């Protein structure tokens, strides 16, 4: 336990200082619960971050608030007492609920910096180490590779994804690439959900995605990651089928089809080297940053609008993880032998 707290303290310190860029004049509010064991470890890490020294005691510019020992009205009042540029940290066993008060929207609307840890109850004790290692802020790597991939994706006209015995082709321009790499330069909002490490976009013309790919993991209907023997999926005009998939994955596809097509939307490249096929955490929110590639299935995507696909009307966004061997962007190899190259 002490080792995990010590490791989390180091990584959280780097996040607060080097990614969020919290200033000495800015206030921090850490809202936590004590339900899941991992929330206690992460909260203790933050206590260490905001302790100036053993002699001086807690930082007067930081407060800790136990969500379950505080009324919703008190939490809301505390949040509304903060000024733009202050930091709110949310350490949650699942998700904090405050009736109709939407915490993340309120925080960003008020210009507050945010660090959010969610669904920590889904992460089991053998996975604690992986989650904490995934919090490491690999600034130079994230910024170099993240911006390098963005530059390639924003100007490309063709992407080919190679798996064992399959190819999936994007014969189209891509939407403006988004970065989740801890670089908030020129961004309206500072912060988000951690761990980080992701570059994502999607095809401008969804019908121009065709071919086959191999899938090694997906989130089941309870949002827990399942790692399986890789199976083939087929994509035709941007719509996915999976005749050889495990039955529970077929059940997910059938559920999507009840309401909408199984569209291939998000093209995500994860940069977090602490997570992968052999280094998993069960929570999909964290694991989608795993080092490699994921796709989203279903019509829902809050970032990119398409004709006939309203951002808020799609129902499903199911992440699947591609067992990639190589990725080429306009003939340039950007991923091979388990490494990104830009």
Compact description:
The protein has helices at 2-19, 37-49, 72-80, 103-109, 128-134, 139-155, 247-257, 284-287, and strands at residues 28-32, 51-53, 57-58, 62-66, 87-91, 113-117, 159-163, 166-170, 178-180, 191-193, 198-202, 209-219, 225-236, 239-241, 264-270, 292-297, 318-322, 324-329, 332-336, 339-340.
State the major sheet.
Answer: 13 strands, antiparallel
| Percentage of residues in helical conformation | 25-40%
Cα radius of gyration in angstroms: 21 Å
Q: What class would the helix/strand composition place it in?
A: alpha+beta
**What's the tally of helices?**
8
Low-confidence stretches: none
Task: Explain the overall architecture.
The two termini are 38 Å apart. With 342 residues, the chain is an alpha+beta fold. The model has no long low-confidence stretch (mean pLDDT 93). The protein is built from 8 helices and 20 strands. The strands form 3 sheets. Strands 7, 8, 9, 11, 12, 13, 14, 15, 16, 17, 18, 19 and 20 form a 13-stranded antiparallel beta sheet that branches. The protein has a 5-stranded parallel beta sheet with strand order 4-1-5-6-10, sandwiched between helices. Helix 1 (2-19) packs across helix 2 and helix 1 runs parallel beside helix 5 (128-134).
């Amino acid at each position: 336990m002490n080792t995990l707290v010590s490791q989390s303290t180091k990584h959280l310190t780097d996040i607060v200082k080097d990614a969020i860029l919290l200033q000495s004049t800015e206030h921090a509010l850490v809202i936590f619960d004590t339900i899941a064991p991992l929330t206690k470890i992460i909260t203790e890490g933050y206590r260490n971050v905001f302790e100036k020294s053993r002699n001086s005691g807690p930082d007067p510019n930081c407060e800790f608030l136990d969500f379950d020992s505080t009324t919703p009205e008190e939490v809301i009042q505390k949040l509304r007492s903060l000024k733009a540029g202050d930091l709110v940290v949310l350490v949650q066993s699942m998700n904090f609920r405050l009736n109709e008060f939407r915490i993340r929207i309120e925080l960003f609307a008020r210009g507050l910096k945010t660090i959010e840890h969610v669904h920590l109850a889904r992460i089991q004790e053998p996975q604690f180490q992986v989650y904490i290692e995934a919090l490491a802020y690999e600034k130079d790597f994230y910024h170099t590779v993240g911006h390098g991939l963005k530059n390639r994706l924003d100007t490309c006209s063709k992407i080919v994804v190679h798996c064992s015995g399959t190819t999936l082709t994007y014969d189209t321009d891509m939407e403006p690439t988004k970065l989740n790499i801890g670089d908030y330069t020129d961004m309206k909002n500072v912060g988000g959900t951690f761990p980080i490490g992701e570059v994502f976009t999607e095809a401008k013309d969804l019908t121009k995605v065709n071919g086959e790919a191999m899938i090694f993991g997906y989130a089941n209907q309870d949002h827990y990651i399942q790692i399986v023997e890789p199976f083939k999926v087929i994509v035709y005009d941007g719509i996915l089928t999976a005749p050889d998939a495990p039955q529970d994955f077929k059940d997910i596809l059938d559920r999507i089809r009840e309401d909408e097509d199984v569209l291939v939307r998000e093209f995500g490249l994860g940069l977090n080297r602490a997570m992968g096929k052999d280094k998993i955490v069960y929570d999909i929110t964290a694991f989608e940053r795993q080092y490699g590639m994921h796709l989203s299935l279903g019509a829902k995507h809050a970032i990119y609008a398409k004709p006939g696909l309203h951002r808020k009307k799609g129902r499903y966004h199911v992440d699947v993880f591609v067992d990639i061997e190589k990725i080429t962007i306009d003939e340039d190899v950007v991923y091979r032998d388990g490494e990104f190259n830009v």
